[in-house]
Structures are given as structure tokens and as C-alpha cells.
Amino acid sequence: MRLSAGVLCRAAGAAWRENFPLHGRDVARWFPGHMAKGLKKMQSCLKLVDCVIEVHDARIPLSGRNPLFQETLGLKPHLLVLNKMDLADLTEQQKIMQHLEGEGLKNVIFTNCVKDENVKQVIPVVTELIGSSCRYHRGEVCEQPLVFLLDTPGVLAPRIESVETGLKLALCGTVLDHLVGEETMADYLLYTLNRHRLFGYVQHYGLGAACDDIERVLKSVAVKLGKTQKVKVLTGTGDVNVIQPNYPEAARDFLRTFRRGQLGPVMLDLDVLRGHPTAKTDP
């Protein structure tokens, strides 16, 4: 997104938060407790499977992966599909590939299922992986060649080790927003955008300049969208109706706009790629 020279200069010279307050957040409450059960069920079905296709959001190619998934697969041929590539900033794609290869993943395809971009590469790669495997030689996901697909629900790690990883997963819609809190997620999104000098939100919402104060940003968003509400305030002369910005509605719009790609492409795992791992949860 193009911004005026004045906005860019002011944004570049601003001091942004170097870290996000993570204390006191109960990550375990965000993620359902049946994940371990789902992983065991998948493991029991592996004997029917010749090749595993793992699908994740391309905006979190590293944080989005379940660390227990690799050991669960055993020796099965394995393809990682990173979808929603149109929403991800892939400037550091080579680093992403190198990082994944270091984790034992050599077969990775970036796709955009909405526009059928690179999706047609999946079947040929799966066919090649199965054909080159010394253990698995059955047919599988289309008619030529014959391929069958066994779909499973998404399975996250039973325990999320980092609050920041949890927030990244939440931004990409892996949990219900209200469990984390829309305003908390909006604040983390603002922190991430500013930290990576991604100021598309300034132009999208017609703000005067980039800002690191989520309350001020949400107030501006609420006023621009007409998202206000009447609130009764007790004064010395009785109740008075005051018009206030609807911060939750503004936060929801901020999140929806990000998820639709209207703030520009974003890579939420830049900190991991650049050697700045996310903080651990409090014990």
C-alpha cells in the first residue's frame, strides 16, 4: 500500500515498542484440551496412509506447526502446504525454506487455494513421493493416478510454549477470538505491524499517522466507521448519556481487515526467522 512521503518519514522516525506485555495471559485456556486425543487418533489411522499432507497458514510457517507432528508421522512421506500465500509477505521465503529444511522438511509448496495458485503442484509431488518410497506403493487423491484423501481436523500442540506464538495462531483464526480477547489481539497486531514497519493500516483507515497506542487507533477506527455507543455516566446532577467509541467493534474490524489481506501482506514469523525467538509463558 502506498503512503505519503510525510507519513512514511514520521513513521520511520517513530519509536515503537520493542516487546509486547505477555505476563498474566492464560494460553492454556485459549486452546481446546482435545488436541492430544486428536493427534492420537490421527496416529492410529497412519497405517492406511501412504503420504501425509500438512497444511498451514503461510503467515505463520514456523509458529503454526505442531512440534509433535513430525515424530507422530514416523517415516511416512510428508508434504507441507503453506496456504494463503497471497496474504503472506514472502520476502524471506528462502530463509523460511532453509529453516523448514533444518527441521527435516524438504517438500514444501506455497499455495493460494482461492485462486488455485500452485494447487495443481500438490498431486504430482504426492505421486512422486509415494512412488519413490520403498514402503508404500498403493494408489491415492484423484483418478489419474487414483488417489484417495483422508481428511482430519486441525490439530495444534496440546501445550503452547509461548504466549506470543499463541497470539500469532489466534490472529490467523485458529481459536475463537473471544477466548483471547479482540482488543488484546488487535493490540498485538498493531505492535507487529509497527515493529515491521508495515503501515498499511494508516492509509486503509485514513489515519493522520502511524501510532503505537491501540486505544487511540481503535478510537479513530470506531469514529471513522461510525461504531459508537451511548453510555450512561453518573454525575453530580444525575445520569448523563455520553457517546463513546465502540472499542470491541473497532477491534473486530481491525482483525477482519488484516485477515482479508487489506493491510497488505504480513509475515508474523519474522522474529523467528531473524533469530529473535518468542518469549516463553510464565510458569
UniProtKB/TrEMBL annotation:
Coarse class of the protein's main subcellular location: mitochondrion
Family as reported in the entry's similarity comment: Belongs to the TRAFAC class YlqF/YawG GTPase family. MTG1 subfamily.
CC per GO annotation: mitochondrial inner membrane
Organism: Prolemur simus (Greater bamboo lemur)
GO molecular function per UniProt: GTP binding; GTPase activity
Keyword field: GTP-binding, Mitochondrion, Nucleotide-binding
Localization in the cell: Mitochondrion inner membrane
Mitochondrion keyword on record: yes
Binding positions for GTP per the UniProt entry: N83, K84, M85, D86, G154
Membrane topology annotation: Peripheral membrane protein
Described function: Plays a role in the regulation of the mitochondrial ribosome assembly and of translational activity. Displays mitochondrial GTPase activity.
InterPro entries: GTP-bd_ortho_bundle_sf, GTPase_MTG1, P-loop_NTPase
Listed GO biological process terms: mitochondrial translation
Name of protein: Mitochondrial GTPase 1
